[in-house]
Amino acid sequence: MRIAVTGSTGLIGSALVRSLRADGHEVVRFVRRDPARADEARWDPERGHVDPAGLAGCGAVVHLAGAGIGDHRWTAAYKRKIRDSRVLGTAALANALAGLDEPPAVLVSGSAVGYYGDTGDRPVDEDSPAGHGFLPSVCVEWEAAAAPARQAGIRTAFARTGLVVAKEGGAWGRMFPLFRAGVGGRLGDGRQYWPYISLHDEVAALRHIIDTPELSGPVNLTAPEPLTNRQVTAAMSRVLHRPAVLPVPAAALRVVLGEFSQDVLGGQRAIPTRLLRSGFTFRDPDIEQAIRAALH
C-alpha cells in the first residue's frame, strides 16, 4: 500500500515509517522544505498548501505533525504555535484529501489523551467528554479540523496518544538519563495518572487502525492499565536499579514549567476501550515490559 505520513521525523513518525517499509509498504513523507528525495512531498501547513501529487494513489494517510508540547515554556507565542501547528496542519491536509478525485480509504490523525483534561482518579474512555484548559481546547479544535476529510467519506480516526515510553524522545527520553544518574523521582505528590504506551505498541496500534475498517473517531492509544506517576517512578527505579528518592516539588515545577506544570501535575486515567474491543493485542501491557522494551 502507498501511505503518506506527516511528522515522519518525529519519535512516533520515524518508527512508523521504518515499520511500514520493513513490511514492503511505499511511504511518502511530507516535508516543509523542498523535497530532496523521491519519497518526499512538499507541504506548507500554515499556508494551507499540500502537494496533491504526494497524496495521489495513497490508500492511507497518517498525520502526526505538530509542535512539541513540552519543548518550550508556554509563552503566549508558543501556545499559539502548539495550536496552529495542529489545527492549521490538519485543516490543510483534510481539505487536500477532500479535493482528490480518488481519496484514500482512511485518515489516521494524531490527537492526545490531553483531550480529557485532568481526570483525577476517574477512568475515561473515548465516550468521555473533553476537559477544560488549554490542551483540551487544542485537542477539540485539532480533531474538528479534520471535518472536510470525514465529510468527503474518508474514514477518519483520531489517535489519542498517551505518554510514549521510548529513550529517543518525549517525556521518557528526558527521564531515562535522570534515573540512570540516580536523581529521578516522582513529580509532585505522584498521584496523577500517567497513561503510557510503549513505542512498539504505539506503532502497532496506528497500523491496526489503518487495517481495521470499523475503527473511526477517537481511539485511545494507551496501555490497558494506566498507573500513577508514583507507580511509574517505582517501576523505573526497579528496572534501572537506581534509587528514586528525590521527588520534584510541585512548587518547583511551577517555577520551571509555568502553565505547563498544570498538565504535568495532572493526568488522565485513560482506558483504550475501542482498541481492545477491536481485537488489538498489546505486546507491552505492563510498565516494566514497556521500560525494558525501550532500553533494548
Automatic annotation (TrEMBL):
Domain annotation NAD-dependent epimerase/dehydratase: ranges: 3-215
Q: Which domain of life is it from?
A: Bacteria
UniProt xrefs under SUPFAM superfamilies:
NAD(P)-binding Rossmann-fold domains (SSF51735)
Every DUF1731 domain range: 248-293
Q: Which Gene3D superfamilies does this one have?
A: NAD(P)-binding Rossmann-like Domain (3.40.50.720)
**Family label:** Belongs to the NAD(P)-dependent epimerase/dehydratase family. SDR39U1 subfamily.
Q: Which NCBIfam families match?
A: yfcH
PANTHER family xref list: EPIMERASE FAMILY PROTEIN SDR39U1, SUGAR NUCLEOTIDE EPIMERASE RELATED
Please report the name of this protein according to its UniProt entry.
TIGR01777 family protein
